[in-house]
Every structure is written in structure tokens, then in C-alpha cells.
Amino acid sequence: MEAINQKSNHISIGGLAAACGIPVETLRNWEIRYGFPEPRRLDSGHRRYSLDLIPKLREIKTLVEMGYKPSFAVKASSEELCQLMAASHNNEESPIAIPSSLIFRWMGLVRNMDVHELNREFAQHWNINGARNFIFKMAIPFLREVGNLWEKGEISVAHEHFSSEVLQTFLSGQWRPLLTENSSKHVVLANQEGELHSLGLHMAAILTTLNNVEPIFLGPNTPLNDIISAATQRKANAVVIGLSSVSDTKHSTAFLNNLQKGLIGVRLAFGGNKTIPEMSNIEYIDTLEAYDRWLTTL
Fold first, then answer.
1. Residues whose CB falls within 8 Å of the CB of residue 117, separated by 6 or more in sequence, listed in order
2. Which of 197, 134, 189, 135 is nearest to 161 (CA)?
3. Quick one: pLDDT at residue 19?
4. What is the mean pLDDT of each run of 10 residues along the chain (298 residues)?
5. Residue 178 lies in a domain
6. Which terminus has fewer CB within 10 Å in the chain: N or C?
7. Would you state the pLDDT for residue 93?
């Protein structure tokens, strides 16, 4: 590390963290893993960071919040960061649409049950387009096409299960690295007891982290008392329950009502089954887009 004599344009790691809004622990982790931000050493031996690092770190923080992996954002060149930031500003005017050729290619991989290539494709488009675009513009349309082809009898149940499991496994590995240590809000994510499919919960977990809320992920088939216990222990702001679209309406309604009675001062919401009747103090979230907006109300 280069020794420097002047302190005027250099700050400590604590000052750098405060200036760019990134926790000290995260900055240290990036330095160890990716060699950035690189400190310089004062004549006194203390480590200091140039003020010139702040703009780039702020851009990296924005991209990570959009869903790009830190390993991608931190290593990106200044030109790449500028292009990605410009694209994010124009995203509403020019939304990313999944091309039919990509859907066709992914379905070919599903038919061949090529897990390695499908995972590679998911990772590539996640890194290029960011988490939100991957979920809303790619993963959801892909799953919709899988469902359509299954209903038409063009693919088997095995293919449908394969595509869901590969996507779920991929997503489950993406949201945990997005967690930050400065989240002050918590949401418990769980499926009701007997509900075994949690792909939607993993999508919800990604959106939760992108809104700087920590997901307490309990996953599928979670007993009611365990959900209440987790919410109480972590002082959760809300509990969100994922239901199957074909879950028994009477059973799910009773489950939600009993859960609501056990939660004190905690918001309760659910999604996935439109047949559940309206209930007092229990919110219904009909889409992942709605959930993304709902998180901002916590």
C-alpha cells in the first residue's frame, strides 16, 4: 500500500462507510474478496481511504440494491457502472422484455433436463439485468410458459417439477448474499402447515432484501405456533404467508385467523389464494409486484 503524507483527502473506513451508506463490515469483506476499496497507509501507519472512492461506492451500493451481485458490481469498470446506472434511470421508459428466443432456449433446456446449462443461463441474466428485472421480466414469464405448455400436454409433470426446482434452488442462493447487517425491519416468510411449495417465498425473500428488510425465512410446511414464536423472538414487523392457489379455503382461512390471534402488534398478510374471504386485520397481496410496493409501507 502506498504511503501518504496528507490526510485532507483521506478518511477512515468508518468515515467512508458513513459517506457511502455501506456498513464497515461490508467494505472490509469487499476489500478482502475483491481488492476494493483499497486503502492507503499514512506515515503513522494508519489505513485511510481516498475521498475519490465515494462516488463509485455509492454507484455500487445502488446496483447491489437493484439486485446485482456484489462480485459483479464491485469488479465493474467505471464505464460499465455508468452504463448500468443510466440503464436503471431509463428502466421505466424502456422496460426489459424477455425475448421469445430466450423462452424457447430455456424450454429446450427444460426438455433436456440440462440443469447445468439452465443454471448458467439464470446466473448470466441475473447478473446482466439485476434481481428485479430477472424476477418480473424473466422468471415469472418463464414459469407462466412452463405452466401453459404443461396444460397443453407439450411437457410432462417431470419437466414442470424440474424447471421449478432448478429455479427455486438458484433463487435460494441469491437472496442471502444480498442481506445487510443494518436492516432494522424484519418480515417472517412462511408457508402454512401442509404447503410444500416455496418458490414464491424465495422470490419474496429477494424483494424483501432489496427493500432493506431482513427476511426471517421459515419456508414450507411451518406449524402455526412456530411462526408466532419466530415473529415474537425477532420482533418482526410483519408475517407473510404463502398459500397454494388450490389450498383448501376453509382450512387456510382458519389457519390465518388463528395466526392473527397469536400475533400482537405484527402485521399479517398472505398471497397465492384468491378464494380466501376478506378478513379483518389480515392483508391480501395479489402479486409479487404488489408485495414489492407493500414492503415500502412497513
1. 109
2. 197
3. 81
4. 54 84 84 88 81 87 75 80 64 53 91 95 87 90 92 93 95 81 86 89 93 92 96 96 88 94 94 88 93 92
5. no
6. N
7. 41
For residue 221, what is the enclosing H or E element? Answer: strand 214-222
How far is Cα 107 from Cα 122, in angstroms, rounded to an integer?
13
The DSSP code sequence of 6-50 is --TTEE-HHHHHHHHT--HHHHHHHHHHH--SPPEEETTS-EEEE
CA 188, CA 219: separation in Å to the nearest integer? 9
Domain that holds residue 285: 183-295
The CATH number of whichever domain residue 85 belongs to comes to 1.10.1660.10
Task: Report the number of distinct structural domains present in the chain.
Answer: 3
Going 78 to 79 to 83 to 86, the CA torsion angle's sign is positive
CATH number at residue 201: 3.40.50.280
Residue 37 near residue 60, CB atoms below 8 Å: no
Cell of 86: 443510466
For residue 177, being part of any structural domain is answered with no
